[in-house]
Structure formats: C-alpha cells, structure tokens
Amino acid sequence: MTSLSRRAFATAATAAAAALLAGCGGHQAGNAATVRPRSASPSARPAAKTAKAAKTVQALERSVPVRLQIPAIGVDTPVMQLGLAADGTVEVPPITAHDRAGWYRNSPTPGQTGPSVILAHVTVGRYGDGVFRDLARLRQGDRITARLEDGAVPEFTVTAVRTVAKSDFPTDAVYGDVDRPELRLITCGGPRKGSGYLDNVIVFAALTSTSS
C-alpha cells in the first residue's frame, strides 16, 4: 500500500476495531465498547523460522479474495466483501444458514504487503455453528490458503493464535503496519454472556508461498 493508503486504512481500522465481530452470534456491531490501541505483544510476533521464510516470498498485486481454505479445521468457504456500516463500525457477514467469511475491503488483499483482515462468525444464531467455529484450535505452523479473483493462490502459515477480551482488543497488533504480507482471521470466543461472547479469537499468519 502507499503511505496514504496505509494512513486511511489505519484511521478506518481504529474507528472500527471496537466493533469487529461484535456481531458473532447475532449482535449488532455498534454495541461494542471503545478500544484503545496498543502495541503487539510478543505472543503475536511470528516465529523466526516462519518470518525468515515469509521474507523470501514476493508480495502480490491487489486482487479480491473469493475463497478461504483452512484444512486443519475443515474450513472451505466463499469470501464476501465487507465495508463500514453507517455508524462507522465494521460490517459483519449476515446471519444466514449458508454462513461465509468476509474480507474487510479497507485492508490489503491477501498477499499484498500489510495485514489482510478476514472475519467470520463462530455461531450463527438458530442456524448453529459458524464458519470459524473451530478457529481457536489452529496452532503455529498450520496452513491457510486464499484464492484470489485473478487466479493467484497465496498460502499463509499461522504464526500465533490469541484469545483476547473484546474490551482489550489489540488494535495495533491486528491493524498495525507491517513490511510483508500477513493475514488476520478474527471471530468471537471465550465465555458466553447472554447470546454473545466476551472475547475475540485472533489468528496471525504470514505469507509463505504463492501459486496460480
């Protein structure tokens, strides 16, 4: 991204991060609390071996993701585009029987330099489990594949998995500027409160290969 694009993304991300996936299980995004940005914690940083490998992979041109596959947890889902709602919060995928993931279109596309953000529900109300129901089961080294509109297939390797309180969402770690292609997968998790969840599950991954 250009420096202007990065600033625009960071501004939108800061305004929207508090609402990210507050809609897990059916809540409206605007109900979340404000989040104060903070720096990435050591647990969010990639392992040295994966980081070294990621630096050898050339970043891709911008192309919209159309599918996401995570073999370790049986995910194979279409990807829709998500923007900002009228109140300035991040949209979430609709609560439907045919749940799917959503890419936040103000973030880089998978394979571009920077953090590409994809989110999905852990539950979808009366329809049961969501696409990211098992996201917390991912471990360092697991593979994630995105399929892009232009035919490119970037593959990412999980570097960290974190469960954090929604009231302490790590905005900088998720949206902060990075000098290589990375991926963020986000859903709800932790203990339930009413029909919602108190935490977010965040998967951090780095680009390790591309094919077409």
UniProtKB/TrEMBL annotation:
SUPFAM superfamilies: Sortase
UniProt entry tagged with the keyword Ribosomal protein: no
One example GO MF annotation: hydrolase activity
Gene3D superfamilies in the record: Sortase
Record PROSITE patterns: PROKAR_LIPOPROTEIN (PS51257), TAT (PS51318)
Signal peptide residue numbers: 1-29
Keywords of the record: Hydrolase, Lipoprotein, Signal
NCBIfam families, per the entry: class_F_sortase
Protein name per its UniProtKB record: Lipoprotein
Organism expressing this protein natively: Actinacidiphila bryophytorum
Organism placement in taxonomy: Bacteria, Bacillati, Actinomycetota, Actinomycetes, Kitasatosporales
